C-alpha cells in the first residue's frame, strides 16, 4: 500500500495538487473489506472462518 500511496502523492504533486490532501484515510468496516475481497477468494472457506466473517459488523 505504501508504494501506491507514494505514486498517488507524486502524481498529485506534478498535477499541482496537494500530495497529501488529508492526514488520515477514511476507515472501512471489516464487512466492507470482506465484500471487496470475496470475489478473489477461490479456495473454499472453512465453516468456522465463514462463521467468524458473518459476525463482523
Task: Describe, in plain words, how this protein is organized in 3D.
By secondary structure, the protein is mostly helical. The chain has a domain at 28-57. The chain has 3 helices and no strands. The chain has helices at 2-14, 30-37, 47-54.
Summarize the structure.
With 57 residues, this protein is mostly helical.
Secondary structure: number of strands: 0
The helix-strand sequence is HHH
> What is the percentage of strand-forming residues?
under 5%
End-to-end separation: 24 Å
Major sheet details: none
Number of helices: 3
Helix content: 40-55%
Shape descriptor reads elongated
Rg (CA only): 17 Å
- Structural class by helix and strand composition: mainly alpha
Low-confidence stretches: none
Mean pLDDT: 87
Describe how the helices and strands are arranged.
Blueprint: H1 2-14, H2 30-37, H3 47-54
Could you name the key traits of this structure?
57 residues, mainly alpha, 3 helices, 0% strand
